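Chain and backbone:
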Amino acid sequence: MTRAKVPTTAIYAGTFDPITNGHTDLLRRACDLFDHVILAVATNSKKSPLFSQEQRIRLAEEVYGDKADNLSIKGFNTLLTDFAHKEGATVLIRGLRAVSDFEYEFQLASMNRNLRPEIESVYLMPEEKYAFISSSLVKEVASLGGDVSRFVHPAVLDALHNGMDD
């Protein structure tokens, strides 16, 4: 017996401090694969973000908000699996840049599966030219005056150089 396919909502979560071209590459791929994608901007007590959650949401909206009809951008400050359940999402999108990411992602997927077994983790790899980019590296290079224009949207570049108006 064939089951009717239910529209799939996927969540691509992260701190996105700031959102990079690697993130937007994965976001584009996710929007092509799933009926609805939520870019979920997390607060993270373990990190000291350069930009507030509201600023990161604004940057994400400026960078990607009008590029896909099936995308919404939201902030959250709960367990990701609880947020996914509340939003009706059944898929968590995660990016893998290198083999070194795998161990952490494996642990995370196992924990998420224990918390909410109905939610699947799906892994996407960015284009090779973005495989080494991380928000942390972009922030560090930008803070030391390096050129990160190839790795971020012009709005993000401006925010890195000039700050953001609240």
Notes: The helical segments are 21-33, 53-64, 80-87, 99-115, 135-143, 154-162. The radius of gyration is 16 Å. The chain has one domain: 9-162.
